[in-house]
Amino acid sequence: MNISELGSRFGFEAVQGEFDDRSIAGGYTSDLLSDVMARAGDDFALITIQAHKNTVAVATLVGISVIVICNNRAVPDDMAAAAKSEKVAIFRTSKSQFDVSGMLYSMLHPAG
Fold first, then answer.
1. For the chain: N or C, fewer Cβ within 10 A?
2. What's residue 111's pLDDT?
3. Helix orientation angle between 97-108 and 3-10, rounded to the nearest 10 degrees
């Protein structure tokens, strides 16, 4: 699945839509950015409620290509600008982290 497919397939709102449409290799769900730095991988989707520019900095550091902000949290302008600069996609959804994680897992591992 590519980043653009993630947004369209699940009906997520594109908050920052200028990105390289890379393949998503996996996902990581966390609101603790030090945990993301220690455990997330290249080309993962980060599923979180942490809507601030430090989230983009951590994503860039570990090679995360897309951030999904859950629970309809507002995305500040400086976060969107940082993501645009780094070519990191940001999507927003009203769904919970649990729901988004399950949806992404089902798409990446259809056999279950």
1. C
2. 82
3. 120
Q: Are 10 and 1 in contact, with CB atoms under 8 Å apart?
A: no
Dist CA 103 CA 105 (whole Å): 5
92 close to 12: Cβ distance less than 8 angstroms: yes
C-alpha distances in Å from residue 77, one per residue of 1, 20, 60, 83, 104: 28, 20, 17, 10, 26
Q: How far is 13 from 11, CA to CA, in rounded Å?
A: 7
Who contacts 29 (Cβ-Cβ below 8 Å, separation ≥6)? 46, 47, 48, 97, 100, 101
Average pLDDT over all residues of the chain: 96
- Grouping H, G, I as helix, E, B as strand and the rest as coil, residue 35 is helix
* DSSP code, position 22: P
pLDDT score for 112: 62
